[in-house]
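Duplicate of earlier report; Alcohol dehydrogenase input re-posted below.
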Amino acid sequence: MKALVYGGPGSRSWTEIADPGIQDPRDAIIRVDAVTICGTDLHILGGDVPEVAAGRVLGHEAVGTVVETGDGVAGLVKGDRVLASCISACGICRYCREGVYGQCRGGGGWILGHLVDGVQSEYARIPFADLSTYKLPEQVGDESAVLLADILPTSYEVGVLNGRVRPGDTVVIVGAGPIGLAAVVTARLFSPAHIVVIDKAESRLQAAKMFGADTTVLAGTDDPLAAVQALTGGLGADVVMEAVGTPQTFELCTTLVRPGGRVANIGVHGKPAVLHLEDLWIRDVTITTGLVDTYSTPKLLDMLVAGQLDLGNMVTHRFALDEFAEAYDVFADPARTGALKVVLSR
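Output:
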């Protein structure tokens, strides 16, 4: 089969490799029907995730059809259409028993496209398949479903829920990429008074407005602090979400939060950021970090079926499965291409 193989920082290729096989009784093999590229994949290619070894198949977000199951798989059969989650769960360790699947100590967590071969390929092995896939109803299309593999649960759990968004809050989201836009969509479920989105690309700010942002701030032109203070009477935001993953954006978030507010870091960071405790210690600010656990995926899927989540405009570019080179180029240059999410399908 062919797969998108990481060759080290800055190197990737769509190349022929061996077909995946069952390695553990709890494995399943899926035919990949639709797959997308994540900002985390760009961080890997940038050298920000050194645990990823050269030769690894990238990708952790896919919809596929089960073609084979191990003897230990009880809930799937050949032909099932499934969402492959970005997080794998052994179901046995202490963290899995607490629903904290991202911290699984039994061989799971974020492993696809990280510690084991991922899903940017024609076929993929899914470890712990019973707990790491979700059967999809017919009315949910591949494009909508694949957004529930990572960006929707990540934004919802690590951003909205960790940030404890409440009705009437002023919410600021720094970064209007797919994660930031998913944070807009899921924050709106809690009826905040204002959602402010900050980004340096005008096209992405327009997308933020389309998804429900009330106010947008063009970084580098507008003053984010002045804009937030003007909206809040000088107080600052109740919740600020970091959805980029750079030292500058994290440090900006800590300046925008009100005393007693919450900063929820969602972005993947490859470099140290300064934590200005000399300013923060007296302000009762809560800062959270996290890797998604995907415990919310079934609820998000129910909301998608019920029409409570409108994801129709999130996918901006579509490619055939063998067009990964072009898809990566488009996704990595959103200022030029206007890309939000790209989907590659059979």
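The chain has a mean pLDDT of 96.

Merging into the original ticket.
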